[in-house]
Amino acid sequence: MNLLSYVDTVIFMSALLLLTGVLTTKFSVRFGMPALVLFIALGMILSRFVYYDNAEITQLVGTFSLIVILFQGGMQTDFKEIRPILGPALSLATVGVLLTSIIIGLCATYILDISLEQGLLIGAIVGSTDAAAVFSVLGGLNLKRRIASTLEAESGSNDPMAVFLTVSLIEWIQTPDTSVASMILSFFMQMGLGLVVGILIGFLAVLIINRINFDSSGLYPVMALGFAVLTYGAAVLVQGSGLLAVYVMALVLGNKELTYRRTILAFNQGFAWMMQIAMFVLLGLLVFPNELVSVAWQGLLLSLLLMLVARPISVLVSLMFTRFVFREKVLIAWAGLRGAVPIVLATYPLIAGVEGGQLFFNVVFFVVLTSAIIQGTTISPLAIRLGLVEKDRPQGPTLLELIALGKANSEINHIQVQENMPLVGQEIQNLNLPEDILFTAIIRGDKIITPRGSTMIEKGDTIYVISPKTKREQMKRLLGLKEVASEIP
């Protein structure tokens, strides 16, 4: 009876936490800060009533959450958009992380009065930006596409560098005779194997998902997520970078013609939110607020050095030979939000038994929290002040998939008509559409209009077009949408 009561209590509390976490996202949007801040705050409040200190479980949940978040972010990334900025993004993800780690590591050595190795370990832990925080903040901000793509690609690809540096420095602290040359060789092996595994499993996943025919459309997102977890496990098994492999696999999957793409993305988006809530609440529970007070001034100083010195220097050096102008570099530097990855990495020294592990965790936690609050709430006004926010961009067709249509190999495309589209002001009968590409409905304001040949398309219309999946590109070309980037809402 006691066991049953305990289990029921845990389930009840989990439900309350989940619902509370979902509701807090409303406040995060209103105040313009990453939702992770409110989730962590919720965990910290609960830590006053619930004792929790299991770093292993936290790391497990955190790693799985990162897999889901990177998978979701990679699938929503249009490779055509990130291709022009791939060089700058990779430079930020490697050289930028390394420089940030070194600068903060040297500062931490003196501020915390610890050894150089321990200081560099703290620098490595906070070296990477966070995909979940960056995606959530940029989601409601219409930044210039080149800047947004750079930040998204950087945050999605810089985690492997931070993980490598953290693990290598822990090994160096515990085994001082570790060769630097062997660590460098290990880095290139991990990145290379992660890249190969991600590409191979990505193409395999596309092939299987498109050819298999399930009775229920709900099984497609489960299979896609299964491939993401498989990618991580396979990469780690061959000593490659699991997080890089997942992001690359998601890029492949998201940029290929895929059955039930919208269903997969919708499922992953909800699941990613659930995992974020669970992860950040657990991370908040792992912190004892009274211990943060003892490192408050050190943590705040390191956070300011990270935001105002280390990150700007790393961005300026990484983007030295690019076409970004100074004000764009300023925004990229300020948008380097820290989040889940540094806190999850901070559990590594705890589990490894590194001396001062709890101190590292508390300092990193304080740095991440202040970074997210200060930078997260000011990115939007800074972008507007710097003139780096665009007007609404035209959106390409998005897919509304129905089970009955899925078996018939057809789909319904949802098109939001923008002012500069060639459709505006034309009658449907003049578009010369093939017989198997049909307008099924037009939403104009609060009215639903039945399309007829003489119906004229107006700016702001939402059009639903049914067409064979094999003619998706032809449909886009006929409607003048070929060069428009496809965005899934």
Textual characterization of the structure:
Helices cover about 65% and strands about 5% of the residues. The chain has about 500 residues and is mainly α. The longest helix has about 30 residues, at about 180-210. It is globular, with a radius of gyration of 24 Å. About 45% of the residues are buried.
Q: Tell me the distance between the termini.
A: 47 Å
What kind of sheet is the major sheet?
5 strands, antiparallel
Strand content: 5-15%
Give the overall average pLDDT.
Answer: 80
Nearest-angstrom radius of gyration?
24 Å
Strand line-up of the largest beta sheet: 1-2-5-3-4
What structural class is derived from the secondary structure elements? Answer: mainly alpha
The level of helicity is 55-70%
Number of helical stretches of at least 4 residues: 21
From the spread of the alpha carbons, the general shape counts as: globular
Please provide the ordered H/E string of secondary-structure elements.
Answer: HHHHHHHHHHHHHHHHHHHEHEEEEH
Total number of beta strands: 5
Q: What oligomerization state is this entry in?
A: single chain
Can you lay out the helices and strands and say which pair or pack?
Elements lengths: L1 H30 L3 H12 L8 H21 L3 H4 L3 H26 L4 H10 L5 H8 L6 H13 L1 H16 L5 H32 L7 H19 L4 H13 L6 H25 L3 H5 L2 H23 L7 H9 L5 H6 L1 H6 L4 H29 L12 E3 L2 H5 L2 E7 L21 E7 L2 E3 L12 E7 L3 H7 L11
Antiparallel strand pairs: 1-2, 2-5, 3-4, 3-5
Helix pairs in contact: 1-2, 1-13, 2-13, 3-11, 3-12, 3-13, 5-6, 5-8, 5-9, 5-15, 6-9, 7-8, 9-10, 10-11, 10-12, 11-12, 11-13, 15-16, 15-19
